[in-house]
Specification:
The complex is a heterodimer of chains A (299) and B (247). With 299 residues, chain A is mainly alpha-helical. Chain A has 2 domains: 168 residues, ABC transporter involved in vitamin B12 uptake, BtuC (Orthogonal Bundle); 83 residues, no CATH class. Chain A has 14 helices and no strands. In chain A, helix 2 runs parallel beside helix 8, helix 8 packs across helix 10 and helix 10 packs across helix 13. The termini of chain A are far apart. Chain B has 247 residues and is of the alpha/beta class. Chain B has a domain of 130 residues: Rossmann fold (3-Layer(aba) Sandwich). Chain B has 9 helices and 9 strands. A 6-stranded mixed beta sheet of chain B has the order 5-6-7-3-8-9, with helices on both faces. A 3-stranded antiparallel beta sheet of chain B has the order 2-1-4, with helices on one face. In chain B, helix 4 runs antiparallel to helix 5 and helix 5 runs parallel beside helix 6. The relative contact order of chain B is 0.18. Classes of the chains: A mainly alpha (299), B alpha/beta (247). The interface between A and B is medium-sized, with 28 and 38 residues.
Chain lengths: 299, 247
């Protein structure tokens, strides 16, 4: 009983503070948006692209502060611009895509570092890199909510096309749809999502938010719809646990959120009924028994 | 009469490698044409060229008298991929895969209507996959997997269907089902281009056959193209040694 009360207190005490409430709103909303997108990111194999886009927005964020524009605007321009640049260099040179991504995002990030050190502004490098969710302003919250609504609306409207693109772009092409357009749409959604998540965990850890929930869900189900649900659930729980833990431990909020996600992934990796490494042996034995009974399934 | 598939002097290069060299090929509507050739003979490249996936150096491609892009937009072209090109671990059900054949018939949200559901159910029945519609695709046998993609093509209903190695890794029962389905499609007036290394299938299934070795070596009735002399002359191989005929 005492333990239950203590647990209740652990959750309730921080919630009395307004800054914790605001941090929770931003983290949960960012977590949900990232989680939804992470399902496609995992399946298409774009984790490096997520890393690239998040780092490349740095100069955009700095310039936005300098010119007094909403931070999301500059971040979007540089995020989408880098994606386009990666595409152009990839198509027009013999350098492989992962190398092009490596060149473009580090160059953009470096440009951001130089700008911060030379341009007078109120920007705190630490806040951009590692997030400052305990100090978000009303304007920041509004931007996060707006962009999150846009991403969720577009993915809801186009989710079947995006899944087909991820599964079989050649088929999409063959039936007269435009896979290049769907790829661009997914990259655009990634750029906006990264901007949403910046507020919660900062540039460095954004990539975790757009990969871990989807990867965790992928270990737990064979159905895409369930993947979306599980991924979102993981992200929401990680946001709540992460924010509250960071309050109690007086530790980095972004770090706590991502650690909570990584914890969920580890549990799925170890204990997933079908994919978990601890059960793989058992699953293989069951399969062998099935194969003996139904030899038709040998191929 | 307009040819269903027409390649006129098609040349495709990958860097310095000449994948297709001045390929001329014409297949009349309602015919089944077998595409034969060894590994690296350009069969897959020929499919890609027909689908508009690789740029061609020279020549002209016509599908039922239209450019590849127009044919694709009008839903005239269907494609059944090789097994190696599919991500079998993808979290998608057999039913969903077959439904993807209907996407071009739907609105922008791709919400299936009654007609789409019917087409999918019908395609699943014809391929004998109704019972397995709820399975994740990777949980199917090799033959069932192929049938799922043939079902997707059936649901789409294109006039010209390209099948890349539909008999590879397939058990006898699925082989029979697929052959019967393809023959039914021919009866219904569809044109099929089928790449295969299963030479035994060719006379039962195909009206004509093409031997490809980066260029067209022979084109004609199967029994003529499969003459041991022709094969031996073209490839220096014996048709009984089937294992050399991979992709």
């Amino acid at each position: 009983m005492d333990a239950l009360i203590a647990l209740g207190e652990w959750f309730a005490v921080p919630l009395r503070f307004e800054f914790v409430q605001r941090a929770l709103v931003v983290s949960v909303v960012a977590g949900v948006v990232c989680a939804v997108l992470s399902c496609w990111m995992t399946l298409v194999g774009w984790s490096l692209m997520g890393d690239a886009v998040s780092h490349a927005v740095l100069p955009g964020v700095v310039l936005s502060y300098v010119f007094g524009l909403p931070f999301a605007l500059g971040a979007l321009v540089f995020g989408a611009g880098s994606v386009a640049l990666i595409g152009v260099v990839n198509r027009t040179s013999r350098v492989k895509e992962d190398a092009v991504i490596g060149v473009v995002f580090t160059a953009m990030f470096a440009l951001g570092l130089v700008l911060i050190s030379r341009v007078p502004s109120q920007t705190d490098l630490g806040h951009i890199l590692f997030g400052n969710v305990l100090g978000v302003s009303d304007a920041d919250i509004l931007q996060v909510l707006l962009l999150a609504a846009v991403v969720l609306a577009v993915t809801w409207y186009k989710h079947r096309d995006l899944t087909m693109y991820a599964f079989d772009p050649v088929h999409a092409h063959a039936i007269g749809l435009n896979p290049r357009l769907l790829e661009t749409l997914l990259l655009g959604l990634l750029s906006v999502t990264v901007v949403v998540a910046l507020q919660a965990v900062g540039i460095i850890l954004v990539v975790a938010m757009v990969i871990i929930p989807g990867a965790t869900a992928y270990l737990l189900t064979d159905r895409f719809e369930r993947m979306l649900v599980i991924s979102t659930g993981v992200a929401v729980m990680a946001a709540v646990v992460g924010v509250l833990a960071s309050f109690h431990l007086n530790a980095s909020t972004g770090g706590c959120i991502v650690l909570a996600q990584a914890g969920a992934f580890t549990l799925a990796y170890l204990f997933s009924p079908r994919q978990g490494v601890l059960f793989k042996g058992r699953a293989a034995r069951t399969l062998r028994t099935r194969l003996v009974r139904h030899p038709d399934h040998t191929r | 009469m307009t040819a269903a598939i027409e390649l006129n002097g098609i040349t495709v290069r990958y860097g310095d490698v000449l994948a297709l060299d001045d390929v001329h090929l014409s297949v009349a509507p309602g015919r089944v044409c077998g595409l034969l050739g060894m590994n690296g003979s350009g069969k897959s490249t020929l499919f890609k060229a027909l689908l508009g996936l690789v740029p061609t150096d020279h020549g002209r491609i016509r599908i039922l008298g239209r450019s590849s892009a127009t044919a694709r937009r009008k839903g005239l072209l269907g494609y059944v991929p090789q097994s190696e090109q599919v991500d079998w671990a993808f979290p998608v059900q057999v039913h969903d895969v077959v439904m993807m054949g209907r996407y071009a018939h739907m609105g922008p949200r791709r919400r299936p209507r009654a007609a789409d559901r019917e087409a999918v159910d019908h395609a699943l029945r014809r391929t004998g996959l109704t019972e397995l519609a709820g399975r994740q695709i990777g949980a199917l046998s090799g033959g069932q997997r192929k049938r799922a993609f043939v079902a997707r093509a059936l649901a789409q209903g294109p006039d010209v269907l390209l099948l890349d190695e539909p008999f590879t890794g397939v058990d006898k029962r699925s082989e029979k089902t697929i052959t019967e389905l393809l023959l039914q499609l021919r009866l219904a007036g569809h044109t099929l281009l089928v790449s295969t290394h299963d030479l035994a299938q060719v006379p039962t299934l195909c009206d004509e056959a093409v031997l490809l070795q980066n260029r067209v070596i022979a084109h004609g009735p199967p029994e003529q193209v499969l003459e041991p002399d022709v094969l031996l002359e073209s490839f220096g191989i014996n048709p009984d040694q089937e294992e050399t005929w991979t992709r």
